[in-house]
Amino acid sequence: MPLLLSIIEIGGYPDFTPLYHELGYQTQTAASVRKAISGMKKQAPDVIVAEFNFQSDFRDRTSNLETLLATVRAQYPHCKVIALYEVEFAPAFARLQQSYPIDWALRFPVSHGDMRTALTGLAQQGSSE
User: Fold this and answer.
1) Is pLDDT of 19 > 80?
2) Total number of domains constituting the chain
3) pTM
4) Number of neighbours of residue 19 by Cβ within 10 angstroms
5) CATH of the domain at 25
């Protein structure tokens, strides 16, 4: 059973856990990128769902998602990432995507239908590779 890691730092959107289970994923949840990266050392996820929380006060990066993506791309290249972002942060999110390609992006508000489309789309991409 594939593992989906959900990183919920701020939240404010529906709990997608029942949908993840319906689609055949085992799930883990982390409250921060730091905790997620630590947990990934024990079991590498197949899919990560994480929020893009733009932080203009960071000197060398745009968000914790940037730290996560650097780790994922270097150590877990098979892992797919779904990023959730706010429309007002779209320009910063687009800059991040230039350095770290994201497999699927969903703009808030995110519905169960949006998440289902993303996960089934990733599954279809994986089966065609």
Assistant:
1) yes
2) 1
3) 0.93
4) 16
5) 3.40.50.2300
